[in-house]
Amino acid sequence: MFKTRITEMLGIEYPIICGGMQYVSNAELVAAVSNAGGMGILAVGNFGSKEELRDEIRKIKTLTDKPFGVNVTFMPTLRIIDREGLIDTAIEEGASAIETSGRITEAHVQRIKKGKVKHIHKVARLRDARTAERLGVDAVAIVGFECGGAPPMDEITTFIQVPLVADAVNLPVIAGGGIGDARGFVAALALGADGVVMGTRFMITKESLVHQNVKDAVIRAKETDTVPVLRSLRSMERVFKNEVARKVIEMENRGATLDELVPLISGDKVRASWEKGDINSAILPCGQVIGLINEVPTVKEVIDDMVSGAEDILNRLTRMIRAG
Q: Is 267 a residue whose pLDDT tops 60?
């Protein structure tokens, strides 16, 4: 039903992508999304070496024969060793796409292009989408202020970001931020997107490794229970509003440096919190879409409900047009 430039480019059934979430997007989650007709993306920030990444990709290939991607972030606050080597490993092991974020160069784009895989670059600003097109990527993902992880510093929402970028570039556009059900899916397509990328919605599924305590906390949460942090470092993240997030904001307001904040925001703490379920021990990236999440379905149920719900919405809109 949904044939877009993204489904054709990636060879997937539905234009629905699970973003590469650090410490969350593992082989099981990636394969579940790909098997359900979308595309799962593995996050290389989970791994300390090319060998570990290679093993996880090979595990994905035992779980699915569908297309999958690998995320390599160039965000300055994430200390990833040998990004170029990780890109090469992902290409060698048969990834269908590389998703990048942060500041990339023409050399990075050419490296991926030479590997004959599709390159999706995730941005939070219109000007960065234009730059990515000029550098030669295959598609851009644009996120709004609602999104978990790294929202735009200038606080522009998804409803504005998507049409701005869709009008500005000739590339396929993927929309992210605040999308968690059929309504957001259809809205993104109506705004000019060729597909959607979701993180928080897939994080709260049965296949996700996130501890049940975290899933329960998200289900209980309201849309107001997230907060942007690390604005002072110009590397803003939207996270769950917990004790650590409040402490980080307090320290930022006092002018804390990155070195002072590291003990609170370290990746090791985030990983441990996801796995052990202590929701007050780390900053936990998630988006405002938590206000729309009230159950823990399977990945397939998420995608099937989005697709069937989208059909219902489009039929309803068609009846409205005819009635007019």
A: yes
Distance CA 60, CA 32 (A): 9
The per-residue pLDDT for range 126-137, each reduced to its tens digit, is 999 999 999 999
Q: Give the total number of structural domains in the chain.
A: 2
pLDDT of 299 > 60? The answer is: yes
Q: 293 near 45, Cβ under 8 Å?
A: no
Cβ-based neighbours of 112, under 8 Å, separated by 6 or more: 87, 91, 98, 100, 119
Do residues 29 and 207 touch, judged by C-beta distance below 8 A? yes
Confidence label for 276 from pLDDT (cuts 50, 70 and 90): very high
Same domain, 165 and 195: yes
Question: 269 and 138 share a domain?
Answer: no
Q: What confidence tier does 78 reach under pLDDT thresholds 50, 70, 90?
A: low
pLDDT, residue 212, reads: 97
Rounded CA separation 283/323 (Å): 49
Q: Which domain covers residue 15, as residue numbers?
A: 10-209+294-323
**Cβ-contact 148, 218 below 8 angstroms:** no
Does this model's pTM top 0.85? My answer is yes
Q: Report the alpha-carbon distance of residue 46 to residue 70 in Å, rounded.
A: 11
Pairing of the two strands 118-123 and 173-176? unpaired
Residue 324 scores a pLDDT above 90: no
DSSP 251: H
The helix-helix angle for 27-35 and 50-63 (nearest 10°) equals 40
Task: Please choose, from the candidates 23, 99, 33, the residue with its C-alpha nearest in 3D space to the C-alpha of residue 64.
Answer: 33
Looking at residue 322, its amino acid is R
| Residues 127, 236 within the same domain | no
Structural contact between residues 239 and 245, judged by C-beta atoms closer than 8 angstroms: yes
